Amino acid sequence: MDITNGRHRAILQKIARRAMSERGMLTDFSSDVREEVALLAERTLQAAGARDLRNLLWCSIDNDDSRDLDQLTLAEALPNGLTRVLVAIADVTAMVERDGPVDAHAHHNTTSVYTAAQIFPMLPEELSTGMSSLNPEGPRLAVVVDMRIAADGAVVENGEIYRAWVWNHAKLAYNATAAWLEGQTPVPRIVADVPGLEDNLRLQDRTAQAMRAHRRSGGSLGLRTLETRAVFDGDILADLALDEDNRAKQLIEDFMVAANGVVARYLESKGVPSLRRVVREPKRWDRIVELAAQFHHTLPHDPDSRALEEFLHERRDADPLRFPDLSLAIVKLLGPGEYEAELPGHEAPGHFGLAVRDYGHATAPNRRYPDLATQRLLKAALADKPSGYTPEELKELALHCTQREDDANKVERLVSKSAAALLLEGRDGERFDALVTGASPKGTWVRILKPPVEGRVVQGEQGLDVGDRVRVRLVRTNVEAGFIDFARA
What we know:
- The chain is of the alpha+beta class.
- It folds into 3 domains: about 10-280 and about 340-420, no CATH class; about 285-335, no CATH class; about 425-489, CATH 2.40.50.140.
- Helices cover about 35% and strands about 20% of the residues.
- It has helices spanning about 10-20, 30-40, 100-110, 125-130, 175-180, 190, 195-215, 245-270, 285-295, 305-320, 325-335, 370-380, 390-425, and strands at about 50, 60, 70-75, 85-90, 115, 120, 140-150, 160-165, 170-175, 230-235, 235-240, 275-280, 340, 430-440, 445-450, 455-460, 470-480, 485-489.
- The strands form 6 sheets. The chain has a 5-stranded mixed beta sheet. The protein has a 5-stranded mixed beta barrel with strand order 14-15-16-18-17.
- A hairpin with a 4-residue loop joins strand 5 (about 115) and strand 6 (about 120).
- The longest helix has about 35 residues, at about 390-425.
- The radius of gyration is 23 Å and the shape is globular.
- The relative contact order is 0.13.
């Protein structure tokens, strides 16, 4: 494949569209969808009884280039060491009617798919990045989760949920916000320009850090795998950059975990069925025990998330370079997450990785269909109306969303591998320092650091084991298949 023709983006888009189609996922919106969106643009939204919270210090924190903004956050100090945390979630269902053309497309794919060269949004961009996005361009309708957090980071009440008009006063980016919160840079101008926002964000950060410590003490797993994003120079793939964890991402994660828990408990209290995000106790716990033993750490015989987090914390401090690879091994042994319908009188298994029993998905209705459906359930419960979903429909929806999430993950992984192969194309014979990330009868895999990509060792792999440092030579790449082959140098 010619890497000098400047068509890298087009090559990866073609691979992505083919992968989507092979898994039965839609790549384009129909004319019926476009017609419905055009009609929505002419409507004036009405929300009887919605509170007016536009003047509060709402802000969004997301990726630098994100425009499909699902959440806004703010915090308020209360007496007795409590902190009030509010999460505003885009009221997407005010615009997307069930079983209409837009909803049918969203139900088919169930998720936005983010590939290296192209995003396949679950909802048309006129909605997801416009009318239903919480952009700082005017008032927006939202569903607000209003929580109280104790000084130790615990959610001390079930919380209050209501509809409200909100206004995003500052669209912030993860990396710049984290650099400031971590003391590396001065306060961003966009923060300084909004009176009171700097102090509010520092309160949000302190509260989120306390919430994270509280969750970790209860067994929430501090895993960290390596994620990369494609960096383009025009249409030419220039690099793969590591997408690092940081304080701003942790802030949003901790607030969203808490909000999803509040929503799940609220629906349970109203006696209505709901969708839960489930990670079961790992069936391969014995292998996790064996893996810990290789580091001279003893885990209990039965699954114990708190004991596993203690082991992960130890390894995170002892060997940060190899920790992402250990995390990936643990993730694979834990097994995939799935959606499950929780019916009144029945208890869903809970989320082993987060060490919580009550966990729904409600905070990203622009990009995940389970969140869209949960918003419908939630608004029906708030209005004391029937949910609109039968238990059987929810069971079928949970299975469908689980399968589609797996399809989307496979598409994203394939395009990521193809991008890595494209970046290395034409560099056959070059040598790299690498770390062995997998070794089994099925094959031996290594990760090179610059660029951060993984490939298979097809020559000289004998004797290599996970964690070994090794020098490798690039043998071949296959962009279409996403293959990268190395030989031991």
